[in-house]
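ingest -> fold -> write
write: protein_1
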Amino acid sequence: MSTPRKVTRRKFIQLAGGAATGAALASVAPGLTSAAAASASKPFGMPYVRQNRKVRVAVGGWAQQNMSDLLEQTEFTKKTGIDVEIVLRTDTKETELTRIVSAVQADTSPYDVLDFEDELATSLSQAGYMVGLDDILPAEMWDDFSPEMLEYSKTWSSLDGETFRVIHNWEMPYWWYRKDWFDEKGTAVPETWDDVKTMGEAFTDKGNNVWATEDGLIKGAFLNVYLAWVTLQAGGNPFDVGDAYKQALEYTYDLMYTHDVFNPASLQKDYNQQNADYIADKVAFMRQWPFFGDVARSEDNTEWFSDDKVAVTLPPVGPGGKAGSTYPAAWGFGVIRTSPNLEEAKELVSFLSTNEVAVQAMKVGFWFLNARKSVLAEAPQDNWLVQQMKMYTDAGVIGVRPFHPQFVEALTILEDTASSYLTKQMSLDDSMKQAKAQLDALK
């Protein structure tokens, strides 16, 4: 098991600063040794003799009530004798990273269990701040994960073959379209990159600022997400700065400036602005994360909403094939190495990782929705979000989010160089040369 790495002032600045500028939003599956499996299979329900046991778990404000309800309904404290205090983590990943780095270097911890996202997972694992979990995870858990969740966990929740995060929120962008518009024009929903190129003729009306498609591509939180999936659709990883990345950039540029399909103003928009344009009847087809479904169905949009305005289809397939058409991002639970309640923290994470509790969690709130087999089997089949996740899972279109070991620093490099090309400030060759040189300097 690794030990915390001493972080120099320079590395601290790289970690915290990299997150601030870049943040948005093994060949076999991780497994258990026989001894670990036997340990993890012990039933809950027998409190330890020691009294006054406690654990602090940090979650985002949006998840506080769900977490409280879950612990109450599963009777974790009654079964284990461990009191749980739910505290709020800071509101951004960069401030959270700063808090944890400072605390761990002082051999303390602001909480014991942390609910955290991909960007923080990369930084904290590389620094050696998270506890390995394989010896306490239920033996049943890995068999319950879908193949896509297993691949994701190997890449984003493990380091050197050791699992340090158990994901519970696992979701991907969906492709939304105005079915009412498509039906009116007799236009087929695009199934390939080539199909997307023809959409400008049917839907783009520059005079009225209506576009066939749009995205949120502003730097600092959004452009890197787009670059990752469009390069994945091309069959590669953008951090390789190879042929697939070049093809993805050229495709995006041509959609904007040659085919009049993709609104170039996307480079100055975030997701809220993108959603507002769609609801204002300015966009026919778009990639967006699941939260848009709740936005469209909110009370503010009651007069506008109808099912045929927010239809969901499978992603258009790129040169890389359908298996890399989209990718999920995730949140999950981990244990901070300097936790003052280390034993209790491990017991809580082990408890939350069981199949039974995973199903109960999903029923408490969709913050706990993922593609575990037991979760999808028990999820309400008439719910739009469950339907979309099952459709994408069954279609085999979910790939693994492109990874770089110095993720937050690397994505900033890609954003800066790609935006220079997409705003016509730099040639494609120069953009790629600069990206390649700066990424090589990180090694």
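write: protein_2
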Amino acid sequence: MISYRHHVVSLVAVFLALAVGVVLGGGPLSELGRAATTDSARTRAQAQDTKAAAAFGDDFASAAARTLYGDRLQGHAVSIVSMPGADGDVVSGIAAQVQAAGGSVAGTYEARPALVNASEKSLVDTLGSQLMTQLDDGVVGTDASTYDRIGQLIGLSLSGDKISLDKAASIRQSLAGAQLMTSPAQASRTALVLVVLGHKDTDDAILSGLLSGLATTTTGVVVAGDAASGADGALHGLRAEPVADEVATVDSADSAVGQVTTVLALARSLKVQGGSFGASGSDGAVPLG
């Protein structure tokens, strides 16, 4: 039989449990719980506001793009060179914006890892020397460094205004044969080159040499990277190099705003070279001039 004492002990235990619950629910611990819940809700709200603002910016850029372009690329072709690790969606997104600006894509080329791998410098140097001998004197600088020279040759193979179409095609075939760069089956002459950086950083000296060579043999070069590359990645390092005066750079190309900015930079490069644009750009967010 359960004694009266057992009933009393059980009731006391129940009341103690209730009392502890009341204290916790109305005391300092409850305030901590409510504060944590409030902070969490505030953090979620701030994240949603940031996401909404970014979405608004992208929507605005997409809607206003054609007006901003004003067909400034009408009649102009752009060659796109994607570096190792470049995002395919970014490449196709910018290509679509080029067409929206009245331009066309002359061809999309894919740089292979060997082109920018320091351990393959001997291959790049040997091929560059061989290809240079096939061209007239003075077309490629005899004092050019390994990567400057290969950059000049790539530029000549894309623009073709200083060499015949057959020689331009021969250079592209040689680059493909050495697994340095893929080439489309059909390609047309171009004055503008867009280089889309990949997620993996490339040695600053190698990238600078390639871009310097490209800039020597084409009308305008624009280099696009994602937001991270502009903050502390390859694009950030490139902007500190002398070649930044010869090529335009645009970060945040992984967003609609950045892709529209990239095309505006391409249009600008028909007359003005250089410039740093985007979220981390020193010359402003967007080149409107």
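write: annotation protein_2
DSSP finds eleven helices and six strands in the chain.
Residues 72-277 form a domain with the Rossmann fold fold (CATH 3.40.50).
pipeline exit 0
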